[in-house]
Predict the structure.
Amino acid sequence: MIVANVHDFREAARQRLPHFLFEYIDGGSYQQVTLRRNIEDLEQVALRQRILRDVSQLDLSTELFGQKLAMPVALAPIGLAGMNARRGECQALRGAEGAGVPFTLSTVSACPLDEVARAASKPFWFQLYMVKDRGFVRDLLAKARAIGCTTLVFTVDMPIAGSRYRDVRSGLSGAPSIARLARRYWQSALRPGWAWDVGINGRPHSLGNVAPILKGKTGIDDFFGWMRENFDPSATWTDLDFIRSEWSGPLIVKGILDPEDAVLAADHGVDGLVVSNHGGRQLDGVLSSTRALPPIARAVGDRLTVLADGGVRSGLDVVRMLAMGAKGVLLGRAWAFALAAGGQAGVAKMLALIEAEMRVAMALTGCRTIADINDNILVRDEI
């Protein structure tokens, strides 16, 4: 199929992935109200078109956490992404490197830290979930630091997993049974390209970073069972201090939706935060990232670097997020769909589309550099 924009990757992924994997990427929690809000609220942000501004020379480059980027975009952490293409995280990393933007490896990735490090030519970011075994957390952070990860993204909005009804209906989650396993095998057989490339030749299918504590268990049901038993709902701000003491590099807290929490994060010495509702996959009915971002950016000012994600499907959306106060934007589903549709080349194509769309949006709002993008390019009643 012809891919003209990021939305086209979604349909291409639907045609390639087994149904249960597509639903896992595409779905949200409960009735998916927040999932829809993320997209709809961002689409409603109106920009001021400005003319005759000499936009012949545009510069999309920026610096985040001491790293020079070709544009203010990073690939967000996505669990199980390695199941979307053969050794998927490695392919996505190479696509991000080629575009000059960071890749963030999830704690629950298929490809472990050391495998991704071998595929990398420059440092990448690492994402951490808080689990009950603090010794495991300490060892995992030490490993990430030893292989050269520069920036840690600490996800705080998943003390327990949200209820994702589409995953239950697809057979991905729910009570373990032979019937559910058979449904997944049948859905995989209906996608022979994926079954051969990923299902057979993409092995091992395990969660490499947590494999030592899974003790040889590699099934999807094993993963969800481990997550329910080991993610720590008792974590508090004191545990953020523990993470800060174990990580000397840039520390970003992901999953902030309230200005008071943003101020607390700044008080605890983090370097950045991500305004995020986990892509609408956790607490349904909360604010979209679009609505949450401006008051959070105002609350923390320059005390830390504010990033955002949620509903971003174009370079125009990136510019909107920047105008509302973000210094950088994380892409989630956009790269997951692109990876599923075309591997490394798909991720590279997606990022090229994002860049091209950003250039158009910047030119038509009169912005020559990323620093020029601020709330002055927003229609005032939309701020």
